[in-house]
Amino acid sequence: MPIKEMDCRGLACPGPVVACGRIVKQEAPAALRVLVDNLAAVENVSRFLRTSGYTVSSERKEDALWQVDATRDAGSTPDEAAAPQPAAAAARGKTLVLITTETLGRGDDTLGAKLMDNFLATLPELGDALWRIVLLNGGVRLAAHPGKALDSLKALEATGVSILVCGTCLDFYQLLEKRAVGQTTNMLDVVSSLALADKVIRP
Questions:
Q1: Looking at residue 77, what is its pLDDT?
Q2: The pTM of the whole model exceeds 0.85
Q3: How would CATH label the architecture of 4-81?
Q4: 3 state SS of 150
Q5: Residue 21 to residues 49, 91, 169, Cα–Cα distance (Å)
Q6: CATH code of the domain occupying 88-201
């Protein structure tokens, strides 16, 4: 089986996913091998390919080199594999919560942390309307540090709420391997999610 090879080293987020999306849409290769140079790209590319109809495996080759191998699933047509955005239909009429800090409001950080805990614990009141939570910048700490906020996020994820955690932000704060909830994501997914959501809440 011929393997389509892509070298995405050096591409900033969401470059690797965008590049893979073009190849999948234009060529729909039966097998794909992608080289990337950071763990966030490994997770983002792997997740994109899985939602595009591929079976995916990854391997660390060197300190700054990862190899992602993907094979199109049996029964998956090129058109299905080319669909770049998962859960697009589910997003219609749904609410997205965009969190960019680990505290809520300005003033006292201790109070702000308590308010954020309360905010996340109250989100289940939205019921089925709550579709996705996106964590950016300092907000990614909520997905990595133990506490009430992390417990609330895990409980929401268990009910089916999608949680996306910025890979570039996790990498910046050196938290990539400490993420305890959600999926590592990229700016393409973030922008697409904002566009697809019916309502966006930004505390």
A1: 58
A2: no
A3: 2-Layer Sandwich (3.30)
A4: helix
A5: 9, 20, 22
A6: 3.40.1260.10
